[in-house]
Amino acid sequence: ISLHPYSTSVTGSHKIKSQQSERIQYQLVDISQDNAVRDEMQVLVGNPKAAPPHIVNGDHYCGDFELFVEAVKQNMLQEFLKLA
């Protein structure tokens, strides 16, 4: 699975999990468990101060939660997730 939503269990930002289609396989990454994972997310996002949620497909940054919601509204989820 190469689709990785970065989240944290500390702030309760599990909105991505509830918003995504169950047909799309992904591995939720909780940055509160390991600082190295947080650092990895920030490098992938391209912002050393980035906070979750962010979505990455492999090494390709897809966007943050607001962009995800907008893609869902516009029926562009496959393109947003770089699956199309």
What labels describe this entry?
84 residues, alpha+beta, Glutaredoxin, 4-stranded mixed β-sheet, globular
For the biggest sheet, the summary is:
4 strands, mixed
The number of domains? 1
Relative strand content: 15-25%
Indicate the overall shape: globular
- Which CATH first-tier class would you pick? Alpha Beta
**How would you name the CATH homologous superfamily?**
Glutaredoxin
Task: Assign a percent range to the helix content.
Answer: 25-40%
Can you write the helix and strand succession as a string? EHEHEEHH
Measured on Cα atoms, how large is the radius of gyration?
12 Å
Distance between the termini: 16 Å
Per DSSP, the total helix count is 4
CATH architectural grouping: 3-Layer(aba) Sandwich
Counting helices, strands and paired strands, the structural category is: alpha+beta
Keywords: Acetylation, Cell membrane, Cell projection, Cytoplasm, Glycoprotein, Membrane, Nucleus
Pfam family, one: SH3BGR
Main location: membrane
Subcellular location: Cell projection, Ruffle membrane; Cytoplasm, Cytosol; Nucleus
